[in-house]
Design brief:
Structural class: alpha+beta
Number of helices: 2
Helix content: 25-40%
Strand order of the largest sheet: 1-2-3-4
Radius of gyration: 19 Å
Largest sheet: 4 strands, antiparallel
Strand content: 35-45%
Number of domains: 1
Number of strands: 4
Length: 108
C-alpha cells in the first residue's frame, strides 16, 4: 500500500512540475507584442494556440514553439515613430510562429 501511495505522489509531483515548466498565455502574448510598434500600449485579443511543440535553441536550451492566431489591439492608439494608429485599431495575425526559450529571467 505504501508503494502505491508513493507512486501516486511521485506521478502527481512530476505532472505538477511539468505543467509549471511551460510558458503561460501571458508569456506568449508578451513575445508576440515585441514585434509591434507601441507594444507597451497594445494588447492581444482572442489568442488561439493552433499548434505547440517542444524545441531546442541553437545553444541547447529547451523551449517551446507555438503557431498562434488572434489579433493585436491598440486601445489608446499609437503615435510612436511617426505611426498614426487611431484608438481601438486592430490587426489580425494568423499562423504566427512564436518560439519561447526558458532563461534566467523567465520565458523569452
Amino acid at each position: 500500500m505504501n508503494k502505491n501511495l508513493l507512486f501516486v505522489y511521485f506521478i502527481s509531483i512530476v505532472f505538477f512540475c511539468s505543467c509549471k515548466n511551460t510558458p503561460s498565455n501571458k508569456d506568449i502574448e508578451k513575445k508576440i507584442l515585441i514585434e509591434y510598434t507601441c507594444a507597451e500600449t497594445a494588447k492581444v485579443n482572442s489568442l488561439e494556440i493552433v499548434k505547440s511543440s517542444p524545441t531546442t535553441s541553437l545553444f541547447g536550451f529547451k523551449g517551446y514553439e507555438y503557431i498562434v492566431s488572434g489579433e493585436v489591439e491598440w486601445p489608446t492608439g499609437c503615435t510612436e515613430f511617426g505611426t498614426s494608429l487611431p484608438s481601438g485599431y486592430k490587426e489580425k495575425f494568423d499562423n504566427k510562429r512564436v518560439v519561447l526559450i526558458k532563461g534566467e529571467e523567465g520565458w523569452q
